[in-house]
Design a protein that fits this description.
It contains twelve helices and 18 strands. The protein has about 425 residues and is of the alpha/beta class. It comes from Pendulispora rubella.
């Protein structure tokens, strides 16, 4: 049996960061795929550069951005002030919707403003859907926040915790909204984003540059965990460890560890992502658009070509599905192309290249039950030297930078 003081499961952002900042050289990174990157992989096809999805970095910690940039000396890296909108009928509303209701047709604006004014009297919210009604009123909730988020999460919003999106939800009170009618202030946590010319994989490669290649085992998956003896069995061997850091989806980790758990506590959606390259340019001055209209298959599209101002339209298109729903890629692509034409995104454009991937899980459903069960099971795992981190390991909603911060802080507490 092999031994390793620090075993890391997953060679995505979280796992590679943990390895990069470990003070102990006795570590091994296990990755089931044949490539590093997790969901931050980049595809290059017919001159287009796409990621598995729209992975744009939003840095709150300048020292982290500087650390990454130092390891990407040959990359053209753009810092972009994002331009994002909501497709609403024949209008393009500035994001976030709740701060820009004055851009709606007059009757709908008055309806939203009236409902917003009286919303505060609805009392304490018990779930995400009630929070939307209580905080913003029926008009704003039903015109955008509910239909959009139901398309995104592919579930009944009343099943989600009221703080399911945490700091990422663009809250605004009546004063903010009224003030925004005269002087626009649409700042959010991701008011600017950073993106390298070579795609999101360049950030992954920057982190991986601090990880010894011989310490990464590609094409090797974790099969089971013996918590009592701290032994991991993989598709190739058995490894005894002192500590294990996992970025695998939490429900899969506890199952591999043989722990009894409430399966109903962990739910999620999956997202079908299409990357589409067209023969000529489309809209300019937009980076992504939100689509609350239930008649459209996608909930969001993004424009890669408007980051570096390339001469052909390059899109990512996202469709949400329930975790058990079938995904027919060919049928969905035909529907997406028709919807893009109906929305005027394409106007007789010719599709010259495309790629698709199903992200499963994509967004986890944060509920009161999931929070409690995650905390309970994490205590058991940590008692046996196992730490679960990242968006899926932490069963949370977070940014890529958050993953870096979390992994770095976690291993800082480990003794070499």
């Amino acid at each position: 049996m092999e031994t390793c003081r620090h075993l890391i499961v997953g060679a995505g952002i979280t796992g590679l960061t943990a390895a990069a900042f470990l003070r102990d050289p006795d570590y091994l990174v296990l990755e089931a795929d044949t490539q590093i990157g997790g969901y931050c992989k980049t595809i290059k096809k017919e001159g287009f550069v796409w990621d598995y999805s729209g992975h744009f970095f939003h840095f709150k910690h300048p020292e982290i951005e500087a650390w990454l940039r130092q390891r990407m000396p040959k990359q053209d890296i753009r810092v972009v002030e994002k331009k994002t909108y909501i497709a609403f009928g024949d209008r393009k509303i500035d994001f976030p919707f709740q701060k820009n209701i004055h851009q709606l047709p007059q009757a709908e604006f008055i309806e939203c403003l009236y409902d917003l004014y009286f919303a505060a009297s609805q009392g304490e919210a018990a779930n995400f859907k009630e929070m939307l009604y209580a905080r913003f009123g029926r008009g704003i909730a039903e015109k955008f926040l509910i239909p959009y988020n139901e398309k995104l999460y592919a579930c009944d919003l009343s099943t989600l915790d009221k703080d399911a999106m945490g700091r990422f939800f663009p809250h605004a009170n009546l004063t903010d909204i009224v003030r925004n009618m005269r002087v626009a202030d649409n700042a959010s946590y991701n008011a600017t984003f950073t993106y390298p010319e070579g795609g999101a994989i360049e950030y992954v490669n920057a982190i991986a540059s601090e990880v010894h290649p011989h310490n990464i085992a590609l094409g090797e998956a974790l099969v089971s965990l013996d918590l009592r003896h701290r032994v991991a069995r993989t598709t190739k061997r058995e490894i005894q460890f002192e500590r294990l850091v996992s970025s695998a989806p939490f429900h899969k980790l506890v199952k591999l560890a043989g722990l009894a758990y409430d399966e109903s506590a962990f739910s999620w959606n999956k997202v079908l992502v299409f990357n589409l390259g067209f023969d000529r340019k489309g809209a300019r001055d937009v980076h992504w658009m939100y689509y609350p209209d239930r008649a459209r298959s996608f909930y969001r599209i993004g424009y890669y070509d408007n980051i570096f101002d390339t001469d052909r339209m390059s899109l990512y298109v996202e469709l949400g599905f329930a975790k058990d729903a079938p995904v027919d890629v060919e049928t969905s692509l035909a529907r997406v192309l028709a919807d893009l034409e109906a929305e005027g995104v394409t106007q007789g454009h010719r599709l010259v290249a495309h790629h698709s991937v199903v992200m499963d899980p994509a967004y986890v459903h944060i509920t009161r039950k999931s929070i409690a069960e995650h905390q309970r099971l994490s205590r058991i795992l940590q008692a046996h030297g196992v730490y679960s981190a990242g968006r899926y390991g932490g069963w949370t909603y977070c940014s890529i930078e958050d993953n870096i911060v979390e992994a770095k802080a976690l291993v800082a507490n480990f003794e070499p």
